[in-house]
Write a structure and sequence with these properties.
elongated, four-stranded mixed beta sheet, three-stranded antiparallel beta sheet, 12 helices, alpha+beta, 2 domains
Length: 282
């Protein structure tokens, strides 16, 4: 569907709208926006915020916009014909709803965006320095993972389709995976991501991130998976292993501490090497 075709549809459709709603639709199209708040709508229509709220309420009844949450709306594209309900991509909804809050898309969402996921995950994961309760945005549960300022690193702005998203880079995504496998679909899914990311991986950056996380469990699991999938030279990995303190942690923190012990990395292998190697071989 070409841009000229969509523009023609919008021009035809705005003839059936009131002048203020028409200005809203045209203004949103000019800005390339489909998700907007009441303040943006009021500015585009040239009305007060209370007036904008009333106009948007009427527009929602007509199926022209979809309320996402209080004060946030999604434009129903004209190409949907008679459809009266539409929600934009869940990542865009999160971006628009968070405003100036410091955050980046992470964990399972980052695996999806980097094309490192092997199983669908319809939830959204967001890392932020602010503590927030999980919220439902248009049917997608958004999980907030708190990070202290010292761990708020390793993210980038990426263009995905026609939108720009703030997302953890590949190395930070893998570190988040070993820190919280449950937020990524489990340790097996994280191991697959390590294996698939290998050609694109900045190995020194990955090690740097693991150490900057300031959790020995993260360093242990990262070193183990890097060694298992030959992601770094043996000398570098041996140096990391020698720096570890005594003790053992679980390879998968969400499983019980049953399994063989890997003395080099100080890990209880409650997921075996064979299981991990088999998982990436399919």
């Amino acid at each position: 569907m070409t841009e000229n075709y969509l523009l023609t549809k919008i021009m035809k459709a705005t003839k059936t709208l009131g002048p203020r709603t028409s200005r809203l639709f045209s203004g949103l199209h000019d800005q390339g926006r489909t998700v907007f708040d009441i303040a943006k709508a009021a500015a585009l229509m040239g009305v007060s915020t209370p007036e904008a709220a009333g106009i948007l309420h009427a527009a929602a009844k007509r199926g022209l916009v979809t309320p996402v949450k209080r004060g946030l709306y999604n434009l129903v594209p004209f190409e949907l014909g008679s459809a009266t309900f539409h929600l934009e991509d869940r990542y865009v909804l999160v971006r628009e709803s968070l405003g100036n809050m410091p955050y980046f898309l992470s964990h399972a969402s980052a695996l999806d965006i980097h094309q490192l996921a092997t199983q669908p995950n319809f939830n959204v994961y967001v890392t932020s320095t602010r503590r927030r309760k999980n919220i439902n945005l248009g049917g997608a549960m958004t999980h907030f993972v708190w990070a202290p300022p010292a761990r708020f690193f390793g993210y980038q702005t990426m263009k995905v389709g026609n939108v720009r998203l703030v997302v953890s880079d590949i190395e930070r995504t893998l570190i988040d995976g070993v820190a919280h496998p449950a937020y990524c679909g489990g340790l097996i899914e994280v191991a697959k991501a390590f294996f698939m990311a290998k050609p694109r991986l900045d190995k020194l950056q990955l090690i740097k991130y693991a150490q900057a996380f300031q959790k020995w469990a993260v360093v242990r699991r990262t070193g183990f998976l890097m060694e298992l999938f030959n992601c770094a030279d043996k000398g570098t990995l041996n140096d990391i292993a020698r720096s570890l303190p005594a003790g053992y942690v679980r390879l998968d923190p969400d499983f019980t501490a049953d399994g063989a012990r890997d003395k080099k990395w100080g890990l209880v292998l409650n997921v075996t090497r064979e299981e991990l190697e088999q998982a990436v071989s399919h």
